[in-house]
């Protein structure tokens, strides 16, 4: 599928403790709170053991908060009301427990590209089948890695070893790994549906396609990589791609609502996509939306798969389980490790596993870290898997119904996955809780104290943060008049676990504040502060009150923890 790209660099969090060199450089107050020894269960970065097979359950079973899920409902209902999407299905699972599975809006609403309403629009259901678009690439990649597991395929072997025709036009050295990581040198997109008269001629056109840059020199997301990999699977297995994926992946996993080329009887269970004029197809409903996949008979390595949110969750849980689901093993643990390891350290911002996209903050938002994996699809589909949080987030929409040229749903993806992250509690190891700066785009939150430090002093506090590295910052500032502010130390950005920090405050300071500032998109899990105190040079604590604008106190300790 064609993938929209922009100028935004896709960065997540990295291990940065900005104040580590400044910690403990002054006297600490005697009233420093002692952490509660026992950590809470289900905390951020400490989710606990996951179930091997998915089941439905409650948020409380996996420690997730309710309010962010209500916000997801608000966001999706607003997107439908504003005609950004006709409908959606949202699914969230943590530790093998499905805590949200909800349908919104309509699966089919319009008859044509003039937005003429259907006489009987089709309501969205939780088991509505979606054109998964480029999420199909994950299944092609899984098929490839199964062949690697079987010893039939080598990742660093030339593709031409398996498909001799691929060597045409200087592609002799392109490897299987380079196809999986979009570093082959192929162009981003071609109008394949305008070439040839049938599948065979179009496949030959792909195999003959020249490169636009040297293999391995750059990351360029291209459907052609996966189209070729689909052909490799067919050549080595002796099966068509759809038959292989059905037999080796879907059936063993029990994904009975996932398939290529759904039958006509399923149409009323399928989300409609766009009204296509070029090629002249009319309302595409029950057939693959992607023109190139359609021209290849509806089955291709880059697109063509249809499925439900719950089936997709099973596939994601298999990856979290290390390649197995229940009693069925689909991939070796080694194959999963390779698929989820960054293969492109030379291209920061384009972290890529084998098939899986990694650390893509542009749609994963606060669920993004170095191990987060996922994929999106042009039709409006999204999958995010967070191994560190044992969490799966799935947002399936039919945003191209009835036309593709609509408002981008990237902000919507960001917002809903941000709320999923927000629902996972940060372990605040003190009974009284901690200040939280909140989440938001282009946000400013301040926590300010008025104090008279004529001869200077020390600011001491405990802090934890997950901030979008080099884009969102936590500033600590001092002022003599409340108008001009001086930075204390370096701004916080990136990532730090709970750390005790002490900073020198200059003489004459009357105001001290913590200021959290975000850019226009992508959040981390946020910034937390515990018991900030101001100390005079003799170590005596000043009695001050903190004025919060955008900050609020949060507690994760229940009565039984105290």
From TrEMBL:
Signal peptide span: 1-23
Span of domain Beta-lactamase-related: 79-413
Pfam families cross-referenced by the UniProt entry: Beta-lactamase, InhA-like_MAM
Domain of life: Bacteria
The entry's keywords: Hydrolase, Signal
Aminoacyl-tRNA synthetase recorded as keyword: no
SUPFAM superfamilies reported for this sequence: beta-lactamase/transpeptidase-like
Molecular-function GO term, any one: hydrolase activity
PANTHER family hit by this protein: BETA-LACTAMASE-RELATED (PTHR43283), BETA-LACTAMASE-RELATED DOMAIN-CONTAINING PROTEIN (PTHR43283:SF11)
Name of the protein described by the UniProt record: CubicO group peptidase, beta-lactamase class C family
The organism of origin for this protein: Brevibacillus centrosporus
